[in-house]
Amino acid sequence: MTLRLAALLLLGLQLHAAAPPFPQRVRQIINAFAHPATPAPLSYSNIAAKLKLHESPAECSSRLQELLAEGPSGDMFWMFPVTAIAYLDQGQLSEPARQAMRQSLKTYMPYRGDTENHWLLYYTCLYLMAQQWPDLTADQWFTGKSSQENLREAAGWIESWVKLTTTRGQGEYDSPHYMGVYLLPMSYLAEWAHDPAMKRRATMMLDYLIADYAAESLDGVYVGAHSRVYDNGAVEKWNNVSSDFGWLWFGQGYPLPSPSSFLLFYTLANAYEPPAILQQIATDRSQPYTHYERKRTRNRWRFYDELHGPVYKTTYMRREYAVSSDQGGTLQPIQEHSWDVTWHVPDPRGVQNTLFSLHPYSSLRELQTYFTFPPDQGVAEVVSSKKSYDSPDKFVGGSPYEQIFQDQDSVIVLYDIPPGTRFPHINGFFSKDLAEVREDPSGWIFARGGDALIACRPLQPYAWRSIEGGGRRLFSPHLRNGMVVQVAARSEFKDMDAFRQAILALRLEFKLDPVPTARFRSLRGKTLQCTYGQPPSVNGAPVDYGKWPLFGGPFLEAPVDSQQLLLKHGAARRKLDFRTLTVQ
Predict the structure, then answer these.
(1) In whole angstroms, what is the distance from residue 189 CA to residue 248 CA?
(2) 174 and 315 in contact (C-beta within 8 Å)?
(3) pLDDT category of residue 17 using cuts at 50, 70 and 90
(4) How far apart are CA 360 and CA 374, in angstroms?
(5) 577 near 559, Cβ under 8 Å?
(6) d(CA 333, CA 33)
(7) What's the predicted TM-score (pTM) here?
(8) CA distances from 77 to 185, 237, 566 (A)
(9) Where does the record locate the signal sequence feature (predicted)?
């Protein structure tokens, strides 16, 4: 058995019942890369892991020179492993290997990228490399600027990103994959920045980003809505980078079969262990709660007067399940996930423990809003890397013709799709792992996911389409459309029939013309009303999105524009103040 395979098997054995202490979890991750399972030539990740353990410096030096001689590629995704290698060197690498790294900064010009995570990676690495070689002149850098100029530019961008995030929220928010790309740069800066203010700012941002995840995790599974998620991760909620981090930080859930590179480089730098209050926030599901967040859209380059629009998120959490949503619309291109029900299962690996619907929107206008490429190549360029974007049966993506309203564990989703729209239908994801599925004569669909009882009422006729690998797609080819969903815990009812009777006793009124509207008396005793294009209401009172907090709920509290975040659990408090870079 190879050393890396043994390490991965150990990761799989020491989980729920006996997760090892945090330092051991860190060591297991590094060992998995330091001791590859195959005799293939070392990668940048392997080299970095070996340097961290002070192993095989001669082999690392020669292989690094080979990789750099082959020609760098990958832009900012090349920059982050090479930056780590430069700081993990600590006298281990040969002088020719160091010179090759330094020369690559002159001869290779990494693309800055077109997303928030790209820019943060790029500027973090530029900052640290300029700090590492502070005396290089402009002709020794791919930027055409000196080390000091690069340092100032990068520091300015990083500081502006922190300020924007702590006042108006992240743009690439709550992504179960890309969260790793934000944690990695902050771990680098917290460990390797020389400037005390930058080091402090990055360490506080680690608390901030981890808190953002902790309040919306269910036994290590990151619940929706998400700015960006890949197709597999949208339906198999565990199958995301977030599961790696939930296991590392809190010993919850199950890590991926092979640790992600984001997780590795996080541990190679600062390997920040969250404070006890974040452990409590992530693991305490003893009482149901509603959690609110305000985020922002990605940069909108066309068709809008404002660069960013607001995103209003609601998450209802309890130990059996979570319901989460945003307000609908194209808040992010391509990979948005706007709402879902996620139920807890003891072992989520291979389980599709979620239910949701969407309009499979595909449009050049959406791409032109968020990207700057020419229109004649837009869709083809996106589909080359995001294969499902222009697919009618996809399960990922936002739509400008969708409006969502959530109160606790009730959701109203409305669609008003103009005639002539590409893919004029809605898709509903009904998992292979749902049990007790029943189509009632009333029009309600009843199902059980784990200990979550789910009632779903499509507002228009539909048909079932099979999904490769199992499960069914609800296909409803009607332009004015919608769905009402109510969830409850299994413990609240004697059996599924009792739940069914309770749902059928609730008053539901809806109409589809001139625009979809629904009025629903929820299981929680509230009258919810939503009309497409208008503010929703609870018990007759319109929802005031102007008062939506940056974070709000029993665990996190932050007003918009505050640059502060208060962490709460019981009597414990931890306050992050980015105006003064202090923690109280």
Answers:
(1) 20
(2) no
(3) low
(4) 23
(5) no
(6) 33
(7) 0.95
(8) 12, 25, 33
(9) 1-17
